[in-house]
Amino acid sequence: MENLQPPSCPSQLVVAVFAEWRRQGVKFVILRNYAKVTQQVDGDIDLVVSPQDLPRAERIMVDSAHAMGWHLHNRAEFMPVSLFFYHRETQRQIQFDLFTDLRWRGFCYFSARKILASAVDQGSFWVPHPALEAVNSLMTRQIYHGYIKADYKPTIAAGFRNHPAEVQAALTGMFGTQIARELLTAVAAEDWSKAEAQTWAMRRQLVWRAITRRPIGTLRTLCADLRRFAGRLRLPLGVTVVLLGPDGSGKSTIAKALQAALDASFKTDKSRLIHWKPIVFFRSKRRDGPPTTDPHRRSPRGQIGSLAALGFHWLEYFLGGFFVVLPVRFRNGLVLFDRYYYDFEVDPRRFRLHLPWHWPLRMFRLLPRPDLVFLLDVSPETMLARKQEVPMAELQRQRDAFRSLVAKLPNGRIIPAELPLQAVVGEITLRILEHLKNRQARRTNSSSVLAP
Q1: Same CATH fold assignment for domains 1-128 and 235-444
Q2: In the predicted structure, residue 1 carries a pLDDT above the cut 60
Q3: Helices within 262-339 (DSSP H only)
Q4: Which of helix, strand or coil describes residue 105?
Q5: Which residues on neighbouring strands pair with residue 126, listed in sequence order?
Q6: Roughly what angle, to the nearest 10 degrees, separates helices 421-444 and 251-261?
Q7: Rounded CA gap, 223 and 319, in Å?
Q8: Domain positions in the chain
Q9: Of 58, 106, 113, which Cα lies nearest the Cα of 81?
Q10: Torsion, Cα of 161, 163, 165, 168 (10° steps)
């Protein structure tokens, strides 16, 4: 039956890329979860190509994607090279991970040459030999996190059972005879805790064998990793987004929906939703309390107390940028703020600030700017219907102040937020993805490749 899925469907992009790779002689292997990859894409797609084919494979993928209306919006050099694409009309996103070898902390345990040499042709793509797939499925979580993923256990058990000689040879080459025997025995009995108990011994042997048997290659790989880390510190892969608006504008609801909409580009477990500011000091004592129901109830501090409080907030934003925000951006996460220090200027009374001079707020200009700032613009009547915490006149004043402030920000956008939730989230998602596409074009200095 003819496949009627539109080009905006991720699986159609997968089919097109695979077909073009095969046509141009790029051999590749899908590491896992390949049973329905050309009909349905669930999560990122892990692929192995040879180091020599990597630049050509990237170019073919980008060109094929653009021909189908997909745009590259991020390129991350982790252990694999990760390429992120989105479709403008649907905001659907997909991630491809291109491995040239499989490593733990820079120490190689499977080369692309070994995986490609024994790959099994499935017609439109290649898959690993069952023995190598079983060993890699064992390694994937265990070597990093010390446990074996439950979903992979049937594949591991079948590979160990059906190809014991090949599995033993692969494990012996990585860890030596004793550990290989222990793992084979444990998996045969499906004693997964016994297999997991070998984790530290596996790590030690992997490091020792890499250093003693491939010292030059291992040193070269570790130096390359250091360069990658330095590059990601200089140009973090993640993005910082701020949502602004008075009480009742929908910040919390939209923030959670936005995280879900961008999960294919920024994994939720690697991202961070922050209310107002990053907490640096006395974290254990500053738990989230009950929601604020009367933000102007308490009297403002005196001038000295206000300056001291403002200085404390500035310091926490400054340190939080290094110890909270930067680590998330480094690992390609979304940092999403619900409120920000701009609120000091719009609603100082909420924070009990009494500042007769405007200049103390200027010190916040010394802090790194967020990538994007969105004002959720809602009428005072709608906000008051949602929350009765601030009177109508104050809501109107804050709305006008936020509009004036955001209009002056080069990275500020005013979003009509009285539309249905899906429409608001879709608009913000598209603007974030467009920002990322343009940033990627600047970073690669290759706008011709990324032209829409």
Answers
A1: no
A2: no
A3: 303-320, 326-330
A4: coil
A5: 29, 121
A6: 50
A7: 29
A8: 1-128, 136-225, 235-444
A9: 58
A10: -70
Q: What is the fold, at CATH topology level, of the domain defined by 235-444? A: Rossmann fold (3.40.50)
Beta-sheet pairing, 372-377 with 272-275: unpaired
Which residues contact residue 38 at a Cβ distance below 8 angstroms, ignoring those fewer than 6 apart? 11, 14, 15, 18, 124, 125
Identify whether the C-beta of residue 85 lies closer than 8 Å to the C-beta of residue 72: yes
Average pLDDT rounded to a whole number, residues 371-399: 93
Q: Whole-angstrom Cα distance, residue 323 to residue 83?
A: 27
pLDDT value at 194 more than 80: yes
Mean pLDDT, the chain, rounded, equals 92
The closest alpha carbon to 125, from 221, 235, 213, 21, belongs to 21
Q: Which two tokens mark 335?
A: 């940092």
Q: Which of 276, 290, 278 is nearest to 346 (CA)?
A: 276
| Displacement of CA 284 from its chain's centroid (Å) | 27
Q: Which residues of 118-146 are buried (b: 16+ CB within 10 A; e: fewer)?
A: ebeeeeebbbbbbbbbbbbbbbbbbbeee
- CATH number for the domain whose boundaries are 1-128: 3.30.460
Q: Residue length, the chain?
A: 452
pLDDT digit string (tens) for 31-51? Answer: 998 988 888 888 899 999 999
Instruction: Please state whether the predicted TM-score (pTM) of the whole model is above 0.85.
Output: yes
Mean pLDDT over 231-259 rounds to 95
Model confidence at 287, in pLDDT bands (50, 70, 90)?
Answer: low
| Residue 58 CA, distance from chain mean position | 20
Residue 151 predicted with pLDDT over 60 = yes
What mean pLDDT do residues 161-187 have?
96
Please report the DSSP string for 113-157 in residue order: HHHHHT-EE-SSSEE--HHHHHHHHHHHHHHHHSS--GGGHHHHH
